[in-house]
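ok trying this again, last paste got cut off
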Amino acid sequence: MLNPMNLGRRRLLAASGTATLSAAAATLLAGCAPGMAVAKPSETSKDVDILNVALSLEHEAINAYQLGAQSGLLQKPVLDVAVLFQSHHKGHRDALIATIEKLGGRPVAEKSVAEYAKDLRAQMLKSQADVLDLATRLELGAANAYLGVIPSFRDANLAKVAARLAADESMHWTTLTGGLGRRLPSAALSFGA
């Protein structure tokens, strides 16, 4: 059965194959001055589409961590780590929203917590391990999605932005995997495959 979360990541990866983020989008995401790069008008709408798919994934991650925090299933210090990771995703969200708006686009709206609870099947979360397992799957999917867009970049700044986002997601995945007591991959090059 296909997971709806993976479909969003697939849309991001598919979109990256036919369109790339503009240099303007990358510099905005990287925190550089907007005047350092200029996007062609035809690239802007494609960039906004890709950014909005990424934004929808960040909304999902923020709400997944919120559901986990509110569940009462997370114990300290795991709860503190979840809140920290949620703050990272909020930073990603804010950067994406700012970039979309600067490109003249309209950021995709966040759904209600109840909608995310339904989509993520929050009713199935019965333990701290269940919450961590969900978060681990989301983080791995996000890391792979961001890595998947790197090859389509013509500008090194674009690759750097995607790599920075993927690095955050990979760090989250690694931490959560350890928290679950799972072994790290034994083979090299385990992300982005």
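PB: full thing came through this time. The mean pLDDT is 78.
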